[in-house]
Amino acid sequence: MTRVAMMGSGSWGTAFAMVLAHAGCEVTMWARDPKTVEQITTIHQNRTYHPGIELPAEVRATLTAQEAVQGADYVVLAIPSQVVRANVSHWKPFIPESAVIISLIKGIEIGTSKRMSQVIDELLGTPPSQVAVVSGPNLAREIVQRQPTASTVASVDADTAQQVQAICTTNYFRPYWTTDVVGTEIGGSVKNVIAVANGMAVGMGLGENSQASLITRGLAEMARLGVALGADPMTFQGLAGVGDLVATCQSPLSRNRTFGENIGSGLTVQETIDITRQTCEAYKSCTPILELGREHGVEMPITEQVVNVLHHDHSPTVMAAAFMARDTRAESDLGP
């Protein structure tokens, strides 16, 4: 049986562990919280994130990272982007050299503006062909309810992408593979920022026209950055692009949209942080994403306004005004 280490026991990590087990894998989850480990091991639930959902018997948990990764064929990273460097550095001595590393993380590192696969390559010295990324319209709560969805598995090596595809295919989770890692990771990261902007629009009471405009121009912004970094523009028309963007912007289950909605409805950024139970990747990733765009000469007006609101005390109403004040251009223009 294929052995998988799930490094992280949050909402998405737990959901993907279920998918892997239903696909025939034996999954050992690493968790920091003793209560979570006990729940998963004894009653097969993670009540913190998915109360009432029973996990397969093939999913177990441990407090020890070394135990989780021992003998693993695949090591899945399901932790916040800004703690990847510290954690993976600590886990490096225990991770089998032959293990394929799978990233579920949708963020860009502060200080380096690196994508998660780049951070993994740097820390582990793993060849890029041994790293894969999973991204798509994958709201965890719907997945644990076994609602049908699809996703993208990306690796620079087609064989690796197809191997990962095979270990996570079920009757409710359908992955498609690609070799466009850059586009898949940029789509997964930028869509969170656009979802915060859309949430602000919802919180301010703006309607479907405003939201559709934000989402569509957000897609163009995402594609401009991706293409500048060498991504295939068609990736952004797929599951890791428009698919993930629509789900994250439109669903009340989306933590990034909810984060923006709270700010748009009048809460301060700090008040919103205080009531947010799960990681809002866009809060920290929006700044390095904007820096990445500037480094490559790509204009990212929506991202820039989100950074201004979240980190420079601008009002969400100013964001909306700035969006409408931009110069008009050809809609198909993917230049800077």
Describe this structure as you would to a colleague.
This protein is α/β, with parallel strands linked by helices and 336 residues long. The protein folds into two domains: 3-179, 3-Layer(aba) Sandwich (Rossmann fold); 189-324, N-(1-d-carboxylethyl)-l-norvaline Dehydrogenase, domain 2. Helices cover 49% and strands 12% of the residues. The protein is built from 15 helices and eight strands. An eight-stranded mixed beta sheet has the order 3-2-1-4-5-6-7-8, sandwiched between helices. Helix 8 (181-203) packs antiparallel against helix 9 (208-228), helix 8 (181-203) packs across helix 14 and helix 9 (208-228) packs antiparallel against helix 10. It is globular. 52% of the residues are buried.
Radius of gyration: 19 Å
Question: How many individual domains?
Answer: 2
The tally of strands reads: 8
Element-by-element helix/strand order: EHEHEHEHEHEHEHEHHHHHHHH
CATH class group of the largest domain: Alpha Beta
How many helices? The count is 15
CATH superfamily name of the largest domain?
NAD(P)-binding Rossmann-like Domain
What does the main sheet amount to? 8 strands, mixed
Cα(first) to Cα(last) distance is: 49 Å
CATH topology of the largest domain: Rossmann fold
Structural class: alpha/beta
Strand sequence of the main sheet, in spatial order? 3-2-1-4-5-6-7-8
- Coarse morphology: globular
Helix content: 40-55%
Summarize the SSE layout with pairings.
Layout: E1 3-7, H1 11-22, E2 26-30, H2 34-42, E3 59-62, H3 65-69, E4 74-77, H4 84-91, E5 100-103, H5 116-124, E6 131-135, H6 140-144, E7 149-154, H7 158-167, E8 173-178, H8 181-203, H9 208-228, H10 239-250, H11 255-264, H12 269-275, H13 281-295, H14 301-311, H15 316-324
Parallel strand pairs: 1-2, 1-4, 2-3, 4-5, 5-6, 7-8
Antiparallel strand pairs: 6-7
Helix pairs in contact: 4-5, 8-9, 8-10, 8-11, 8-13, 8-14, 9-10, 13-14, 14-15
